Amino acid sequence: MFDYLAILICIILGLALTHLLIGASRLIQLRHGVRLYWVHLAWTFNVIVYVLALWWGMFWWKHLQVWTVQEFFFLAFYTIVVFLLASMLFPHECGEGHDCEAHFFRNKNWFFGILIAALLLDIPETLFKSLDGLRGVPREYFLFLPAVTLIGIVGLWSGNRKVHATLPLLWLAAMIAYETATSIDRIVAT
Q1: What does the DSSP 8-state code read for residue 26?
Q2: Which of 59, 85, 76 is nearest to 12 (CA)?
């Protein structure tokens, strides 16, 4: 069953990556005719890393032998939410005169709201993997998830550009720390 679901997961997460990469490519191509905003670019990078990490984490589901329709729909919905997160960073059409900073702040509530939703969906996904005996919950998860959720909440509520300048850096630091710690833990355990 996982092979069947994996195709759908790959398509949805692949679309998220495609949207981000096409958006970044358009900014490079139009670099003289658009107003870049480094915070927007940092979040683009962060969401690419997040999508790839999530895609990697979905591989644990390969070992589940018996599937329910609820698990299928839940995982499909989770990846759809992540696609929507990616779609908030770039409009479908980006042309000359595009202002990345204005676009980011116009969509910031949607971006951070969807980010928080994705993080909240990660809780049952991680719990289900643990309950199904696919992967234990890393102890670092109990620090990582509240930290990145707090970043999302601050991003949602703050309009301060200085605050927004620190959030993607904090997010990236948390992501690198978590991925490094849990990967080292896994290597040591094997």
Answers
A1: H
A2: 76
For residue 111, give the amino acid letter: F
For residues 152-164, one letter each, b for 16 or more C-beta atoms within 10 angstroms of the residue's C-beta and e for the rest, the string is: bebbeeeeeeeeb
**Mean pLDDT in residue range 145-155:** 98
pTM as predicted: 0.91
At 92 the pLDDT is 79
pLDDT digits (tens, 9 = 90+) for 74-99: 999 999 999 999 999 998 777 677 89
Tokens of 70: 């609820």
Q: What are phi and psi for residue 99, nearest 5 degrees?
A: -110, 105
| 134 within 8 A of 63, measured Cβ to Cβ | yes
Phi, psi at residue 160, to the nearest 5°? -75, 120
Closest Cα to residue 16, out of 46, 39, 37, 57?
46
End-to-end CA distance of the chain: 27
Give the C-alpha separation, 146 to 120, whole Å.
10
Each domain of the chain, given as residue ranges in start order, spans 2-189
